[in-house]
Amino acid sequence: MTSFIAGLPKAELHVHIEGTFEPELMFAMAARNGIELPYDSIDALKAAYNFSDLQDFLNLYYQGMTVLQNEQDFHDLTWAYLERARADNVRHAEIFFDPQGHTQRGVAFETVLDGIWRALEAGEHRLGITGKLIMCFLRDLPEADAERTLDMALAHKRRIEGVGLDSAEVGHPPSKFARVFARARDAGLRCVGHAGEEGPAEYVREALDILRVARIDHGNRALDDKTLVARLARERVPLTVCPLSNLRLCVVETATAHPLKTMLDKGLMVTVNSDDPAYFGGYVNANYDAMQTALNLSREDLVTLARNSFEASFLSRAEKDAHLAAIEAYAGAP
Ligand code: ADE
Ligand code: ZN
User: Is 36 one of the catalytic residues?
Assistant: First the structure.
């Protein structure tokens, strides 16, 4: 099954570029930028990757990104991810970035965007991976901050596919961002949002009804609400599920307790993704592998997950069909 998963063409729809910052690259970049990390070695840093919840992880995630200073840094980070994704047969990636994590510490929005974008263009030409960018608002900051960030993004609309919502969830409901999402939507940007990772099912409902998101990122807690599950299935709302993230952030206790198979059985449009792979111990294939082993997923389940990854993407119908045909060619007729 591991080799079947490895060869399966797939899209990744939930990956934070700052969460792909491998400790080796982080240390090399810190040295070249003259930045001191509060760890003596790569191993000491890795030893700190033992999280009790989302906030515990976010503290290290924001600390790690302070190493990113120049356009070249953002390029190198993105390029490293794309090469790693290519090895997992990722054909298309919709990548989150957190501009406020950079602009707050004096790095220009354009430095971030230009570096990431240059790598995405090279990824398409040299690796054959297409990419789209989704700019996330940090939900623990005020909506006014998000509004200013949207203003910056609107000057670069061609390169930004959509907006998302991430960071500390509990106490920061989607409704807090109603106005900025409405403005993003009116400007033609797609909307997605993290909901139901640590927050309640009600946040998933708000993301749908108030932010009008096209996908829910995570969505685990939606399972607490039967009516909501029925709606998600009926409306075929994609959930970008991140199994190893859920394990490492104690959203689920064990891999066998993960609800992915239950979600599939309830007819939900689920996809498997890596979230912050440098911090959570594996890229997208490792997430598929962990779930296949723990939940005894069949080849059919795996093909459904890969098909869903393209169906739930923001590619055109014709692009989706070309990828779905590649899956069929690989896995046999449906
Ligand atoms: N930012 C990076 N990873 C995240 C996650 N899993 N949840 C919320 N915000 C994040
Ligand atoms: Zn995430």
Answer: no
